[in-house]
């Protein structure tokens, strides 16, 4: 079975399969538009590629110089630590030979605090604290804007112990209490044996790098980070921006030292080393932002391309329309030729081959029309004569049975009942013989059927039940005369004749959109499937059967033939039957008003 996609494809392409003009227009559009689209796409891609190259080169250069500037700033912080390490006051304090002399100790400590104060005030606003730890004396000097003291500690502070345990002399650690700060620590080693004797720490604000990081041109979608050697973000804090994409920082662990770039499916990652502590400067640029920047550059080319495409489409449609116009006019002329009742029309005056073909077709159509009309009139007259002769007949068994019933009713029934049967029979004769029209209203047909069934109900008073359901809007439609009575006669003869028990027959009239369905049903014996198929096949070919049937009554194929002759092959008679259940015969005719039916 065809898929739904195939069905929709056929539905969409059906107009193009039926029209040579649409095919030509589509072909011209494709031939003219595809080169323009190809050039526009290539130009746009070239522009995007150029923009991508420019963005990569610019960011690589900026990363290089920004890394140099930040490394210089870190070097200046290191110089502050070096100035403390080479301070004579630190040497004097470490070389103090009389630890029991309190006055000497006090003076040495005061000098050490003065040294820290000088370094603190000369460092600038970004250094917010200095700490000096001396391992030998277990002394911790602290100097900041809020604190200025010396404390004795019982053991190595954790931050220094961890650094020395890792055999490091230099570290940068983010603050555990404030993400906007970091601590720069460097060990103090004895010159003679390089033994660690202490450490100096600077507490620094990350914001001192903001102006330098601004050289990278951070946008709304860009991310500029400072990370450690393990890929952890040091600055800025995640609270200030969204976390970096998963996997990007992990991939930076395996890159070579120095500036470089990584490209993923969705990002460009630029990086550069900062100092010996293993810090990295990282910039993450989404691919979409580069495409967006490239699109603003490509916009002019796209506008020009779109205008070129529209102009190409207009030219292609005009050329295809002018080329296919004569063929379409010829096709319409053929379509307008009605071989039976259509207008003759005027032949074409075109001097080219299309005009010659149209004139030849016009003359041939006229001769065919004349021949068809002659044959149609002869056939219609023949069928009308057959129908009129058939209308003059009445089923002899029905007439004989009715007359016998009237004779018996004269002696056994009331005169009114006898008169009712005689009147019904008289109305039936009057309808068959005296009505000259070939078409009758549904109301007249149902009245005629009512007389017929009234006589049958007198013959079978205890067995026959008859019902009629109609819609008032359908009562004035026109249909061939004697279309319903043959269906009832067939029901009596073939369905109910040998059935025991009650007989039920019904006529139902329904309006379904633009059609009227008249259904005649019974609860008779029905018919087997093989016989039903034969009857259906005969009804499908009813238009090829003669109206006159075998015998002296009108059969189903006669009714179907007359309906198709008057309304077309799309209408007619259908039958459904189930053995032991009953039979249902349906007449389908167009839903027209009484005035339309008389035309």
From TrEMBL:
InterPro entries: Bact_2-comp_sensor_kinase (IPR050640), HAMP_dom (IPR003660), HATPase_C_sf (IPR036890), HATPase_dom (IPR003594), His_kinase_dom (IPR005467), Sig_transdc_His_kin-like_C (IPR004358), Sig_transdc_His_kin_internal (IPR010559). It is a multi-pass membrane protein. It catalyses: ATP + protein L-histidine = ADP + protein N-phospho-L-histidine. The chain crosses the membrane at residues 20-44, 298-321. It is found in: Cell membrane. Keywords: ATP-binding, Cell membrane, Kinase, Membrane, Nucleotide-binding, Phosphoprotein, Transferase, Transmembrane, Transmembrane helix, Two-component regulatory system. Residues 321-373 form the HAMP domain. Residues 394-593 form the Histidine kinase domain. The keyword Ribosomal protein does not apply. Its EC number is 2.7.13.3. One of its GO terms (molecular function) is kinase activity. It is an enzyme of class 2 (transferase). PROSITE patterns: HAMP, HIS_KIN. It comes from the Bacteria. This is histidine kinase. It comes from Paenibacillus ottowii. The lineage of its organism: Bacteria, Bacillati, Bacillota, Bacilli, Bacillales.
């Amino acid at each position: 079975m065809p898929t739904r996609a195939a069905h929709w494809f056929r539905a969409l392409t059906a107009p193009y399969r039926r029209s040579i003009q649409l095919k030509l227009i589509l072909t011209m559009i494709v031939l003219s538009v595809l080169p323009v689209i190809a050039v526009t796409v290539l130009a746009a891609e070239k522009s995007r590629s150029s923009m991508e190259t420019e963005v990569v080169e610019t960011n690589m250069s900026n990363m290089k110089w920004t890394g140099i500037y930040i490394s210089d700033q870190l070097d200046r912080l290191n110089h502050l630590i070096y100035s403390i390490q080479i301070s004579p006051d630190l040497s004097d304090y470490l070389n103090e030979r009389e630890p029991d002399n309190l006055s000497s100790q006090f003076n040495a400590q005061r000098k050490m605090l003065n040294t820290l104060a000088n370094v603190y005030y000369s460092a600038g606003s970004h250094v917010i604290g200095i700490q000096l730890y001396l391992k030998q004396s277990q002394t911790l000097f602290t100097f900041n804007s809020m604190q200025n003291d010396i404390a004795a500690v019982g053991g190595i502070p954790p931050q220094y112990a961890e650094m020395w345990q890792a055999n490091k002399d230099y570290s940068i650690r983010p603050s555990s209490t404030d993400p906007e700060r970091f601590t720069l620590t460097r060990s103090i080693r004895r010159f003679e044996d390089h033994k660690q004797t202490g450490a100096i720490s600077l507490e620094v604000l990350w914001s001192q790098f903001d102006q330098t990081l601004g050289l990278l041109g951070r946008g709304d979608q860009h991310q500029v980070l400072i990370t450690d050697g393990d890929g952890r973000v040091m600055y800025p804090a995640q609270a200030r921006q969204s976390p970096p994409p998963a996997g990007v920082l992990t991939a930076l662990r395996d890159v070579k030292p120095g500036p470089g770039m990584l490209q993923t499916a969705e990002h460009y990652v630029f990086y550069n080393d900062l100092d010996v502590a293993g810090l990295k400067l990282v910039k993450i640029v989404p691919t979409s932002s580069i495409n967006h920047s490239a699109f603003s550059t490509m916009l002019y080319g796209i506008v020009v391309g779109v205008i070129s495409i529209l102009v190409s489409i207009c030219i292609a449609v005009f050329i295809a329309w002018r080329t296919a116009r004569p063929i379409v006019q010829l096709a319409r002329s053929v379509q307008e030729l009605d071989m039976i009742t259509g207008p003759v029309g005027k032949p074409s005056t075109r001097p080219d081959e299309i005009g010659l073909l149209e004139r030849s077709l016009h003359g041939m159509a006229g001769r065919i029309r004349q021949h068809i009309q002659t044959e149609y009139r002869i056939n219609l007259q023949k069928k009308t004569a057959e129908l009129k002769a058939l209308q003059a007949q009445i089923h002899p068994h029905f007439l004989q049975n009715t007359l016998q019933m009237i004779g018996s009713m004269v002696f056994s029934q009331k005169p009114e009942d006898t008169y009712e049967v005689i009147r019904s029979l008289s109305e039936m004769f009057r309808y068959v013989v005296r009505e000259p029209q070939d078409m009758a209203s549904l109301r007249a047909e149902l009245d005629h059927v009512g007389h017929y069934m009234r006589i049958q109900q007198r013959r079978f008073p205890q067995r026959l039940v008859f019902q009629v359901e109609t819609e008032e809007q359908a009562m004035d439609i026109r249909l061939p005369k004697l279309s319903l009575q043959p269906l009832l006669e067939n029901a009596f003869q073939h369905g109910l004749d040998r059935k025991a028990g009650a007989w039920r027959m019904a006529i139902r009239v329904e309006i379904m959109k633009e059609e009227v369905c008249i259904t005649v049903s019974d609860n008779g014996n029905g018919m087997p499937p093989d016989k039903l198929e034969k009857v259906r096949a005969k009804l499908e070919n009813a238009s090829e059967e003669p109206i006159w049937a075998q015998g002296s009554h009108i059969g189903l194929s006669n009714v179907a033939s007359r309906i198709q002759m008057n309304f077309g092959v799309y209408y007619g008679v259908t039958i459904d039957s189930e053995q032991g259940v009953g039979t249902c015969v349906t007449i389908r005719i167009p839903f027209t008003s009484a005035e339309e039916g008389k035309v």
